[in-house]
Amino acid sequence: MEELHSWNKCINKLELGIFPTPLYRMTNAEGFLNYKPIYIKRDDITGLGPGGNKTRSLEYILGDAVRQDSNVIIASGPLQSNLCTLAACACSKLKLNCILVHSGEKPDKFEGNLLLNKILDVDAHYIGEVSENERTKYVDELFVKLEKEGKRPYIIMNGGSTGYGALGYVNAIYEIFKQCKELGFRINEIFAPGGNGGVAAGLIYGNAILGFPFKINIISVEYDKDTLSNHIRNIIKEVEEITQIPFNYKLEESCSIIDDYSGKGWGRNTIESEQLVLDFPKMEGIFIENVYNSKALVGMFDMIRKSRVNGEVCFIHTGGFGSLFSQW
Ligand SMILES: *Cc1c(COP(=O)(O)O)cnc(C)c1O
């Protein structure tokens, strides 16, 4: 814990959200599953724009950008990228210019996150249905062009799932640890969705630094277990470089990576996840979207039903609310 503070002092962290986010029991879900206690950590309401995990990541990523005196932030992703919208919100608050690069065609009707981007009046480049590599190439060229114009651009890499981004979730696990003490809660197992592995890397690394108070379960929403594990290892390496505090553990011994619930990959529903998007709000008054949290919550519910968990469980809701409005 002391170590966490020591590196926090030398890293530039901005305040973009409202923390700590609420942590409380989901009593209706407990009744539904006949299991208790089940907690939820409301990282869907982080206070910036439509909320979500990217607020925590951006506090460190844009902290790095500001430290480097950058004045144009480039974020990229698919049309409904949560990172893009949250980056645009953060840049408004910080009075930085923001350029969004979307792989996809400019739509006739702006829905979901795109509507929010439009309200923010952000500069958006629609480069058509290109691969991630081609999008990266476009972003790199844009960077060079902006530098030639005398601007100081900064690229947010890999959808924010980077070493700096993951620091947000090192902090989050510490936040949960402190909250448990203050509220008198005991939590044994934590569940969170895994896309590119930034949230996962932060949680796993932070949990190790704290001495493993929790068992971390990552439900993959896209990649198979080996691919996601490699992404997480690479991000943990980046975190180590930033903090200079080594992670001396084997990944497979520090967490569970579960790829049984990802279906056919990113943005593609399973029958169960599609149903839970409809059922969960009726249960707890909390919305989940189709890409991340529905699959992760299906996984947690299923593992509870199959007695594959022990003791108190907690779900980290990573948000994505903006995208829900384009999914129907
Ligand atoms: C980006 C994102 C995640 C997690 O992504 P990682 O790349 O694994 O860090 C989870 N939920 C939502 C809603 C997101 O936008």
Structural account:
The protein has helices at residues 2-10, 27-33, 54-67, 82-94, 113-119, 132-148, 163-183, 198-209, 225-243, 251-254, 271-284, 293-305, 321-324, and strands at residues 23-25, 38-41, 72-78, 97-103, 123-126, 153-155, 189-194, 215-220, 256-258, 313-316. The chain is an alpha/beta fold. The chain folds into two domains: 2-52 and 162-324, Rossmann fold, CATH 3.40.50.1100; 54-159, Rossmann fold (3-Layer(aba) Sandwich), CATH 3.40.50. It has a six-stranded mixed beta sheet with strand order 1-2-10-7-8-9, with helices on both faces. Helix 11 packs across helix 12 (293-305). The longest helix has 21 residues, at 163-183. The N and C termini lie far apart (44 Å). The mean pLDDT is 96. Bound molecules: pyridoxal-5'-phosphate. Pyridoxal-5'-phosphate (PLP) binds next to strand 7 and helix 8. Pyridoxal-5'-phosphate is lined by residues 52-54, 82, 159, 161, 193-200, 292, 318-320.
Please give the structural blueprint.
Elements: H1 2-10, E1 23-25, H2 27-33, E2 38-41, H3 54-67, E3 72-78, H4 82-94, E4 97-103, H5 113-119, E5 123-126, H6 132-148, E6 153-155, H7 163-183, E7 189-194, H8 198-209, E8 215-220, H9 225-243, H10 251-254, E9 256-258, H11 271-284, H12 293-305, E10 313-316, H13 321-324
Parallel strand pairs: 2-10, 3-4, 3-6, 4-5, 7-8, 7-10, 8-9
Antiparallel strand pairs: 1-2
Helix pairs in contact: 3-4, 3-7, 4-5, 7-8, 7-9, 8-9, 11-12
Organism: Lutispora saccharofermentans
Keywords: Pyridoxal phosphate
Protein name: Pyridoxal-phosphate dependent enzyme
